[in-house]
Amino acid sequence: MKARDVMTARFWTLKTDDSISHAVKRFREASREQGKNVFGMMVTDDDDHLVGMLSMYDILLFVQPRHAGVWAELEDLDQAGMFDDLLGRVKNIRVGDLMTPDVVTVSPDTHLMVIVDLMIKRHIRRLPVVDNGDVVGIVYISDLFYHLLRQYLA
User: Fold this and answer.
1) Parent domain of 106
2) What pTM does this model have?
3) Distance CA 11, CA 26 (A)
4) Strand 50-55 vs strand 40-44: parallel, antiparallel, or unpaired?
5) What is the biggest distance separating any 2 CA atoms in the chain, rounded to whole angstroms?
6) What is the percent of the chain with per-residue pLDDT over 70, rounded to a whole number?
7) In this structure, what CATH number is given to the domain that contains residue 43?
8) How many domains does the chain have?
């Protein structure tokens, strides 16, 4: 059982110059096409080489107010207005500004148990599959989980 057995070969990518609002639209489009929620994508350069990953978590970290934990205690605070201001800032931010540039990858021949170990230890939910510098697929933790479940319960 190798990465090639569970990877999705049909994947969506982003470019570093894409806006965050464009990225969110791409997440929605990919989710509709794949029939499951897509929360992150690979970022590629003009030659389609992997340069990073962007997840909804990266975006949420950016828009999260610094003192969000005390908002509930401040009754006279215009929370809606503050949040609108934060979301407004995102319009000027590019994928390259928020993406994670150091991406862990695997090859198509990487054993699934190695992938499980990587995903658990490094808290990775999606893992690009790269062959000779070319992105050939992506392994989602949910696909890996259900694949292993089917194998061991069959």
Assistant:
1) 3-153
2) 0.81
3) 11
4) antiparallel
5) 58
6) 82
7) 3.10.580.10
8) 1
pLDDT digits (tens, 9 = 90+) for 4-37: 999 999 999 999 999 998 998 999 999 999 888 8
Evaluate whether 4 touches 109 at the Cβ level (below 8 Å): yes
DSSP per-residue string spanning 35-67? TS---EEEEE-TT--EEEEEEHHHHHHHHS-TT
Nearest to 131 by CA among 54, 48, 53: 48
Judge whether 144 and 116 are in contact, CB under 8 Å.
yes
Q: What is the 3-state composition of the chain as percent helix, strand, coil, each rounded to the nearest 5? A: 45, 20, 30
Element (H, E) at 91: none
The separation between CA 72 and the C-alpha centre of its own chain, rounded to angstroms, equals 30
Tokens of 145: 């989980």
pLDDT, mean of residues 86-98:
82
Distances (CA, A) of 78 to 35, 68, 82, 83, 140: 37, 12, 6, 9, 39
pLDDT in tens, 42-62: 999 999 999 999 999 998 888
Q: What is the pLDDT of residue 2?
A: 96
